[in-house]
Specification:
The protein is mainly beta. Helix content is 9%, strand content 27%.
Length: 188
Protein backbone atom coordinates (compact mmCIF):
# COMPACT_ATOMS: atom_id res chain seq x y z
CA UNK A 1 0.00 0.00 0.00
CA UNK A 2 2.79 2.46 0.82
CA UNK A 3 4.44 1.96 -2.55
CA UNK A 4 1.19 2.35 -4.50
CA UNK A 5 0.22 5.62 -2.82
CA UNK A 6 0.21 8.71 -5.06
CA UNK A 7 2.68 9.48 -7.80
CA UNK A 8 6.38 9.03 -8.43
CA UNK A 9 8.41 12.15 -8.97
CA UNK A 10 10.89 11.49 -11.75
CA UNK A 11 14.41 12.85 -11.96
CA UNK A 12 14.40 15.76 -14.47
CA UNK A 13 17.99 15.24 -15.70
CA UNK A 14 21.02 13.02 -15.34
CA UNK A 15 23.79 14.10 -12.94
CA UNK A 16 26.38 12.86 -10.47
CA UNK A 17 26.93 14.38 -7.04
CA UNK A 18 29.81 13.69 -4.67
CA UNK A 19 30.14 14.53 -0.99
CA UNK A 20 33.33 14.01 1.05
CA UNK A 21 31.54 13.46 4.37
CA UNK A 22 32.79 16.63 6.06
CA UNK A 23 29.88 18.24 7.96
CA UNK A 24 30.57 21.75 6.61
CA UNK A 25 31.45 20.88 3.00
CA UNK A 26 29.12 21.16 0.06
CA UNK A 27 28.67 18.39 -2.49
CA UNK A 28 30.19 18.77 -5.92
CA UNK A 29 28.10 18.33 -9.02
CA UNK A 30 28.74 16.93 -12.49
CA UNK A 31 25.86 17.68 -14.82
CA UNK A 32 25.47 15.17 -17.61
CA UNK A 33 22.77 17.26 -19.31
CA UNK A 34 24.01 20.87 -19.24
CA UNK A 35 20.83 22.32 -20.77
CA UNK A 36 18.90 21.30 -17.64
CA UNK A 37 21.46 22.60 -15.13
CA UNK A 38 19.00 25.01 -13.51
CA UNK A 39 17.08 22.04 -12.07
CA UNK A 40 19.96 20.78 -9.86
CA UNK A 41 21.93 22.51 -7.11
CA UNK A 42 24.22 21.62 -4.21
CA UNK A 43 24.02 25.05 -2.57
CA UNK A 44 21.05 24.55 -0.22
CA UNK A 45 23.08 23.13 2.66
CA UNK A 46 26.29 21.15 3.25
CA UNK A 47 26.09 17.54 2.05
CA UNK A 48 22.92 18.01 0.04
CA UNK A 49 21.54 17.97 -3.49
CA UNK A 50 18.46 19.99 -4.45
CA UNK A 51 16.37 18.77 -7.38
CA UNK A 52 13.60 20.87 -8.95
CA UNK A 53 11.27 18.61 -10.94
CA UNK A 54 10.32 21.54 -13.19
CA UNK A 55 6.53 21.63 -12.95
CA UNK A 56 3.88 23.10 -10.69
CA UNK A 57 1.67 20.61 -8.84
CA UNK A 58 -1.74 21.93 -7.80
CA UNK A 59 -4.53 20.43 -5.68
CA UNK A 60 -8.19 21.39 -6.05
CA UNK A 61 -9.37 22.35 -2.55
CA UNK A 62 -8.02 24.24 0.46
CA UNK A 63 -6.49 21.84 2.94
CA UNK A 64 -5.30 19.34 0.29
CA UNK A 65 -1.54 19.26 0.79
CA UNK A 66 0.98 17.57 -1.48
CA UNK A 67 3.00 15.36 0.82
CA UNK A 68 6.41 14.53 -0.60
CA UNK A 69 8.68 11.82 0.75
CA UNK A 70 11.31 9.33 -0.28
CA UNK A 71 10.21 6.15 -2.00
CA UNK A 72 9.21 3.66 0.71
CA UNK A 73 10.56 0.14 1.17
CA UNK A 74 13.70 0.64 -0.89
CA UNK A 75 16.25 -0.22 1.78
CA UNK A 76 19.28 1.81 2.87
CA UNK A 77 20.06 4.74 0.63
CA UNK A 78 22.98 7.07 0.09
CA UNK A 79 20.58 10.03 -0.10
CA UNK A 80 17.76 10.87 2.30
CA UNK A 81 14.83 12.74 0.73
CA UNK A 82 13.61 15.45 3.09
CA UNK A 83 9.84 15.22 3.51
CA UNK A 84 7.54 18.17 2.86
CA UNK A 85 3.89 19.15 2.95
CA UNK A 86 3.08 21.80 0.35
CA UNK A 87 -0.02 24.01 0.40
CA UNK A 88 -0.63 23.22 -3.26
CA UNK A 89 -4.13 24.71 -3.48
CA UNK A 90 -2.80 28.29 -3.50
CA UNK A 91 0.97 28.25 -4.05
CA UNK A 92 1.55 28.66 -7.82
CA UNK A 93 5.27 27.98 -7.88
CA UNK A 94 7.58 25.07 -8.64
CA UNK A 95 8.83 23.02 -5.69
CA UNK A 96 12.20 21.47 -5.01
CA UNK A 97 13.32 18.29 -3.29
CA UNK A 98 16.29 18.40 -0.93
CA UNK A 99 18.31 15.20 -0.55
CA UNK A 100 20.94 14.86 2.19
CA UNK A 101 23.85 12.45 1.91
CA UNK A 102 23.93 9.82 4.66
CA UNK A 103 27.69 9.30 4.23
CA UNK A 104 30.56 10.24 1.92
CA UNK A 105 29.79 8.91 -1.57
CA UNK A 106 29.15 9.62 -5.21
CA UNK A 107 25.63 9.09 -6.51
CA UNK A 108 24.24 9.18 -10.01
CA UNK A 109 20.64 10.10 -10.68
CA UNK A 110 19.30 9.36 -14.15
CA UNK A 111 16.66 11.33 -15.99
CA UNK A 112 13.28 9.59 -15.76
CA UNK A 113 14.10 7.44 -12.72
CA UNK A 114 11.75 7.69 -9.70
CA UNK A 115 13.42 9.74 -6.96
CA UNK A 116 10.53 10.54 -4.59
CA UNK A 117 6.84 9.98 -4.04
CA UNK A 118 4.05 12.57 -3.87
CA UNK A 119 0.47 12.12 -2.66
CA UNK A 120 -2.43 14.28 -1.55
CA UNK A 121 -2.84 14.53 2.20
CA UNK A 122 -5.92 16.21 3.63
CA UNK A 123 -5.84 18.44 6.68
CA UNK A 124 -8.77 16.34 7.90
CA UNK A 125 -6.32 13.47 8.38
CA UNK A 126 -3.80 15.73 10.07
CA UNK A 127 -6.39 16.82 12.63
CA UNK A 128 -7.81 13.37 13.37
CA UNK A 129 -7.26 12.36 16.98
CA UNK A 130 -5.56 9.08 17.81
CA UNK A 131 -7.17 7.34 20.76
CA UNK A 132 -4.89 5.20 22.92
CA UNK A 133 -6.74 2.40 24.65
CA UNK A 134 -4.96 -0.20 26.78
CA UNK A 135 -7.57 -2.88 26.08
CA UNK A 136 -7.01 -5.25 23.20
CA UNK A 137 -9.31 -5.26 20.13
CA UNK A 138 -11.93 -8.03 19.98
CA UNK A 139 -10.01 -10.24 17.53
CA UNK A 140 -6.56 -9.82 19.10
CA UNK A 141 -6.53 -13.15 20.98
CA UNK A 142 -7.60 -15.04 17.85
CA UNK A 143 -4.93 -13.30 15.72
CA UNK A 144 -2.25 -14.04 18.29
CA UNK A 145 -3.25 -17.69 18.67
CA UNK A 146 -3.29 -18.18 14.90
CA UNK A 147 -0.06 -16.28 14.21
CA UNK A 148 2.04 -17.88 16.96
CA UNK A 149 0.93 -21.50 16.65
CA UNK A 150 3.61 -24.15 16.27
CA UNK A 151 2.73 -25.09 12.66
CA UNK A 152 2.26 -21.46 11.50
CA UNK A 153 3.07 -20.58 7.92
CA UNK A 154 2.47 -17.26 6.26
CA UNK A 155 -1.20 -17.15 5.44
CA UNK A 156 -1.43 -13.48 4.35
CA UNK A 157 -4.82 -13.16 6.03
CA UNK A 158 -4.31 -9.46 6.69
CA UNK A 159 -3.20 -8.76 3.11
CA UNK A 160 -6.24 -10.66 1.83
CA UNK A 161 -8.59 -8.84 4.25
CA UNK A 162 -9.59 -11.91 6.26
CA UNK A 163 -10.07 -12.39 9.97
CA UNK A 164 -8.55 -15.41 11.77
CA UNK A 165 -11.86 -17.27 11.45
CA UNK A 166 -11.90 -16.74 7.65
CA UNK A 167 -14.47 -13.92 7.52
CA UNK A 168 -13.78 -11.23 4.92
CA UNK A 169 -13.55 -7.56 5.90
CA UNK A 170 -15.81 -5.58 3.55
CA UNK A 171 -13.85 -2.33 4.02
CA UNK A 172 -10.43 -3.87 3.24
CA UNK A 173 -8.48 -1.79 0.70
CA UNK A 174 -6.05 -3.58 -1.60
CA UNK A 175 -4.88 -0.66 -3.72
CA UNK A 176 -5.05 3.13 -3.62
CA UNK A 177 -5.70 3.21 -7.34
CA UNK A 178 -9.28 2.88 -8.60
CA UNK A 179 -8.45 0.08 -11.04
CA UNK A 180 -7.49 -2.96 -9.00
CA UNK A 181 -4.75 -5.05 -10.50
CA UNK A 182 -3.33 -2.21 -12.60
CA UNK A 183 0.41 -2.58 -12.85
CA UNK A 184 1.18 0.92 -14.16
CA UNK A 185 2.44 3.38 -11.55
CA UNK A 186 1.30 6.99 -11.82
CA UNK A 187 4.28 9.17 -12.62
CA UNK A 188 4.90 12.85 -12.80
Amino acid sequence: MANSLGFYILCPCTFEATWDGEPTSYATLQLLEEELSSLISTETSPGSVTVTPGYIAVTERPGEFLYIKGIPNTGPSTLLCMEAAIEAWWNPSPFSLVFHFNYAATVKMTRGDPIAQMFIYSQVGARTQLIVDNTMPPDFAAWRQRRYRRDYHRDYDYIRGRYPDGRSEATHITSWHPHEGTSNKNTT
